[in-house]
Specification:
Double Stranded RNA Binding Domain, six-stranded parallel β-sheet, 20 strands, single chain, Rossmann fold, alpha/beta
Length: 716
């Protein structure tokens, strides 16, 4: 009630832990302003982080205040649009065309950078445009000079010309009078920063501005709010510094911790530190993990009296030859749960590859939420192409020549196989190539006809690429016709070598981390082929994989399916049962290939916040799945937790459990409900790191304290 009844003349920051009911609090606060102080709803605005949150808030406000009295609930980009409209009405800006479609924006950028691409040896501007727009968006988000954004980021060195081309791109955009999505905020902000009269014109529109998910704000969004607030609006920002997970697009915990008070001085700080989503075990373990970060507000997440008694389980990846994740799922179902209750949260979609195979083999439906086809181990274009080549060798592709025009589905299937790695011919020409292959599949004749009809003789590099791909097609087709099939795993290894998959992936993607994730999917596929090749011929294995593809396609439409999603995508969500697999050092925290030493601490802080977000999505059960690390058990038995950067090496070590499991003080956290219940034996409990748990007990008004003992540090 303190937040709801906060004085209407004073700014405020509300630090709200996960599951604390901040949306309800915001709605009641707005209702109080309208009903208690008679503020005009037209002069109140709620600014949310994404469109779904804005729509959800609109519905809640309409139910609370009535449709006629409900204030606007908008995204930051919508607020930018409203600000632009007002500036246009005031004569400070012009109304330009908006290019909101991603593909059209990419095409516009490709045209703008075409000459630069030619100068710097990039043959296909549309492939570069995506990365260029990413750089442009970051410059516009941070409101920093392009050179400084480049210096602070991890951009491919071959794109260093992005820095000076930013200004050329902006000149092109202004000359054509168009705006891209990021310009909905950037353009009005630039006008407001450089025109005091425009700033004066804007500042008196709102009496109250309520901001949600404030920890995810960027500099341009902060400036947009500052000008809209002016000297008259009262601002209340709601968020959680411990859930700042979008640093890659400009979010910083410092905004909610310090910068808010620079722009809106005199504000009061409130802490909504009670959660109603999960029980004491999760709160305590999550507190231990996040306490490893230094730059954060002093607060504890405390479970409320009516919060569920959430279970927290540490599981090992394989037990008695059975994947533990399957045992966890079966256990949940036996307890009366549903598959749709379960969310599998992963640091990167590639980390779910083994899980996808486990589920597909057992016919357990699952949906990949986000990530597109590239997140699916079987639908990923590199794996799908390898499957296609193997099907060709099994005699299952283009079994007979087409006498007429091939159907579009068959053309796409061949196109998907032959154009990975990229033949660099463009979509239309690879379509024509696939069509000719279907009409003339024998002896590489389709390739030969295409080269003759569509490739100028001066383009020798293209001819060489096609000739090499033709050679592979002919060889595999002969195998399929002969019936003398090689071992599937040996064939796959040969394909990987012939197509130079690893090097081609690294040359086609821009970030080493992206290459690593694709290679991880391929390695999971190779391991699966090797495991399942025993006792199966090549056609039999490809029939099996075709069955898995059918299960996968059917799963995507199943409303009762398990959800697999990234931890970033899970933000703001909650699930009865959460499973976090692949918790090994190097996978979580993820270890980028190239990370300057001075950035490691900041990177680990970001990863720790992401782990905290994952832990706090659960309601009834959280299952953490890690490799069997012999050093983890004695560490947890010693009841030691908190930051262990100095104990666990920051490196890729698949045999070492994630350092965040070490930091969770898991066994002591699991003892908390028994301590609160006054169970026998609590007097004998001792811990190496009881301080945070004891503080938790004091916050709840319990007099019991766990004594501290000293243990020798475990060796790294």
């Amino acid at each position: 009630m303190l937040v709801v009844n906060h004085p209407p003349t004073q700014h405020a920051v509300v630090l709200a832990v996960a599951g604390s009911g901040k949306s309800t609090t915001m709605v009641e606060r707005i209702g109080y302003l309208i009903e208690g102080f008679r503020f005009d709803p037209a002069h109140i605005i709620a600014v949310m982080f994404n469109d779904s949150a804005a729509k959800e808030m609109t519905g809640k406000l309409q139910r609370r205040c009535g449709k006629r009295n409900a204030p606007e609930s908008v995204t930051f980009h919508r607020l930018g649009t409203l600000t632009t409209k007002r500036l246009v009405q005031g004569g400070f800006m012009e109304s330009w065309e908006l290019i909101a479609d991603v593909n059209m924006a990419n095409r516009f950028a490709a045209e703008s950078i075409a000459s630069a691409c030619k100068e710097h040896g990039h043959r296909y501007p549309r492939l570069v445009a995506r990365d260029f727009l990413g750089f442009v968006d970051r410059v516009k988000s941070d409101l920093l000079p392009p050179a400084e954004v480049w210096r602070k980021g991890q951009w491919p060195a071959r794109y260093d010309w992005f820095v000076h081309w930013f200004h050329q791109f902006e000149n092109d955009r202004r000359s054509k009078k168009v705006r891209l999505f990021s310009d909905l905020i950037y353009d009005p902000v630039q006008v407001l920063l450089n025109n005091p009269a425009a700033a004066k014109y804007i500042e008196s529109r709102y009496a109250h501005i309520i901001l949600d998910e404030y920890q995810d704000i960027s500099e341009s969004q902060q400036v947009l709010i500052r000008f809209n607030a002016g000297v008259s609006a009262v601002v209340m920002a709601v968020g959680d510094d411990d859930q700042t997970i979008y640093g890659w697009r400009g979010a910083k915990a410092s905004y909610i911790l310090r910068d808010f008070h620079n722009d809106f001085p005199g504000g009061k700080i409130y802490k909504l530190n009670k959660t109603w989503r999960y029980g004491h075990v999760i709160s305590c373990a999550a507190n231990y993990v996040i306490s490893g970060n230094d730059d954060r507000a002093e607060k504890l997440c405390i479970s409320g009296e009516k919060a569920p008694q959430t279970k927290l389980n540490l599981e090992y990846e394989v037990v008695n030859g059975e994947p533990r994740i399957i045992q966890v799922i079966n256990r949940w179902i036996k307890q009366g749960g549903q598959l749709s209750d379960i969310a599998i949260l992963v640091r990167a979609y590639s980390h779910s590859a083994d899980t996808q195979f486990y589920l597909l083999e057992r016919g357990i439906p699952f949906r990949l939420e986000g990530g597109g086809d590239e997140a699916s181990v079987l639908a990923n274009k590199w794996v799908a192409s390898l499957i296609g080549w193997m099907q060709l060798a099994a005699g299952q592709i283009a079994e007979h020549p087409y006498s007429g025009e091939p159907d579009a589905g068959s053309i796409k299937e061949i196109q998907k196989i032959i154009n990975v790695p990229n033949l660099l011919l463009g979509w239309e020409r690879t379509w024509n190539l696939a069509k000719l292959i279907l009409q003339h599949p024998e002896g590489g004749e389709g390739f030969s006809r295409f080269i003759s009809d569509h490739i100028d003789s001066q383009y020798q590099s293209a001819i060489d690429r096609l000739a090499r791909r033709s050679k592979l097609w002919s060889k595999l087709r002969l195998i399929g016709k002969s019936g003398k099939f090689p071992r599937p795993d040996a064939l796959l290894d040969e394909l990987m070598y012939f197509l130079d998959i690893k090097n081609r992936i690294e040359s086609e993607v821009d970030k080493p981390e992206e290459a690593d994730q694709i290679l991880e999917l391929i390695e999971a596929f190779r391991a699966y082929v090797k495991l399942n090749a025993k006792g199966r011929t090549l056609p039999q294995l490809m029939d099996h994989i075709r069955d898995l593809l059918t299960v996968s396609e059917r799963s995507q439409k199943d409303t009762t399916a398990i959800q697999i999603l990234s931890l970033h995508r899970s933000k703001g969500m909650e699930y009865p049962c959460v499973i976090m697999p692949s918790l090994s050092q190097g996978k979580f925290p993820i270890v980028p290939r190239s990370l300057p030493e001075w950035q490691i601490i900041e990177h680990l802080a970001d990863e720790r916040r992401l782990f905290y977000v994952g832990m706090t999505r659960c309601i009834k059960e959280l299952n953490l799945i890690a490799p069997r690390d012999p050093k983890l058990d004695p560490w947890l038995r010693a009841c030691k937790g908190g930051n262990c950067d100095d104990v666990i090496p920051f490196s890729k070590d698949p045999g070492r459990a994630s350092q965040f499991l070490y930091e969770s003080n898991l066994l002591l956290s699991q003892a908390l409900p028994a301590i609160l219940a006054g169970s026998k034996g609590r007097e004998t409990l001792k811990a190496s790191s009881p301080e945070l748990l004891n503080q938790y007990l004091r916050e709840l008004g319990h007099g019991f304290q766990v004594p501290k003992i000293h243990h020798k540090e475990l060796p790294a």
